[in-house]
Amino acid sequence: MAYPANELSGLSTRASPMQRLAEARWLLFSVGLVFIYFSTVWPDSGLRLTLAYGFILAVAAFSRRKVPPLVRVPDEEIREHPRRIWPETQVKLFVNALPEPSIVLDGRGIVRHTNAPMRDVFGTIVQGEPLTLKFRDPDIVAALKKAQESSGPVSVMHRVRFPTERHYLAYFSPITLPRGNETQPATVLSQAGETGPDFIFVVMLEQTERFRLDELRSDFIANVSHELRTPIASLTGFIETLLGPARDDEESREKFLKIMLAQAQRMARLVNDLLSLSRIEMRSHVRPTDRVDLRAVIGHVVDALSPLASDAGLKISVDMAAQPLIVLGDRDELLQVVQNLVENACKYGSDGDKIDIAVKPSGPPAGFDAKGGAYFRIDVRDYGKGIASEHLPRLTERFYRVDADESKRKVGTGLGLAVVKHILTRHHAHMKVTSKPGKGAQFSVYIRATDQTEKK
């Protein structure tokens, strides 16, 4: 059976009617001559004359069309592999169904089709042009060349820098359609006359989140190592001193032991905060359901931190609504939230003279809850130096400090607000920070009131 060469490159396995007519054109022409002969014998036979001229005209018209060269394929091979070459429409349907950005190339690396996610992410990719005109990354070019020369998939990382940095894992999968004996490796003659795959399927898998998590993990390990290195180095130095020159110096021994105790306590706070973060993250998908009285929580924190506030020259004032202040949550975690906020106010609000704590009924925080509902708002306000606006979005990042030197002097781990953020996320609560340099800072926590929570 005969097929046009361009169909063997990936469009169809069947000869078109026009191709079959092309093979039979001389037979049709001979039949037309016979009809003309008989029309001269019986001149009154107008029908036969019309048919004869019709055949001749059809053959003449067809003979002026450009017909692709024919390639002979054994009939037994066609019967064995009736769909050995994929129709291009099937490939397009398959690619269009994928949620990831995907491209279909021919064996030469020419773009045949792109799906909607690819166009949305990477913009216009012109069909009929080489892929390398759009992606000039040397790694992409090398991966394409390797895919053209191999029978297995090739993967490479591709970074997009604009408008935002993103990372993609690009898979190049060469597809060679079966030909002849399937037990033998298929070697395909492409349209360009070179051996290679019929198609190269390219899919882009976004890895931006994985890169972000890897970066966070690396930063986290570096920060923890840095935070532990200082107290460990301090302890090591003092221990060596006590074992050496200060072995018999009672006054120095007393002084060094106090410093060593402070450094050990610093490490203990860091470890405790890390354990708190880990514990909260493990339970972040489980919303607590205990009834918690915010009035009791605030009272406990004020009693515990009043000495710290007094040492900083601050007075804590409390203003709570007369109504019951009951929410659903974890008492210990909510206690930790309020305690961390008040501790920060004591540390960084010492330029003022007081700390205000207020608990009042409130609507939902703006931009957080479109459904509305009753909330309680817990405000912790200091009158210290305040925080510049560029620092506000990053306050809840782990180990982030507005002033690193001051934070170390204030004995902080840099994890307090990160713990607060994770606890509030578990409680489906929200925090808003408002501050201006020189005018102090206010941390407002919005948590849903019990009656609304129970209705859910």
List keywords for this structure.
single chain; 456 residues; alpha+beta; Beta-Lactamase; Helix Hairpins; 4 domains; disordered C terminus
Query: What distance lies between the first and last C-alpha atoms, to the nearest angstrom?
Result: 71 Å
Give, in spatial order, the strands making up the sheet with the most strands: 4-3-7-6-5
What number of structural domains do the residues give? Answer: 4
Strand segment tally? 14
CATH architecture annotation name of the largest domain: 2-Layer Sandwich
* Strand/helix succession: EHHHEHHEEHHEEEHHEHEEHEEHHEEH
Biggest β-sheet strands, sense, barrel: 5 strands, antiparallel
What's the gyration radius in Å?
39 Å
Structural class, by secondary structure, is alpha+beta
Q: What is the class of the largest domain in the CATH system?
A: Alpha Beta
Net shape: elongated
Stretches where pLDDT falls below 50 for ≥5 residues?
A: 1-14, 64-73, 77-85, 182-193, 452-456
Strand content: 15-25%
CATH superfamily of the largest domain: Histidine kinase-like ATPase, C-terminal domain
Examine the coordinates and then state which fold CATH places here, giving the name of the CATH topology of the largest domain: Heat Shock Protein 90
Which whole number gives the mean pLDDT?
77
Overall helicity:
40-55%
> How many alpha or pi helices?
14
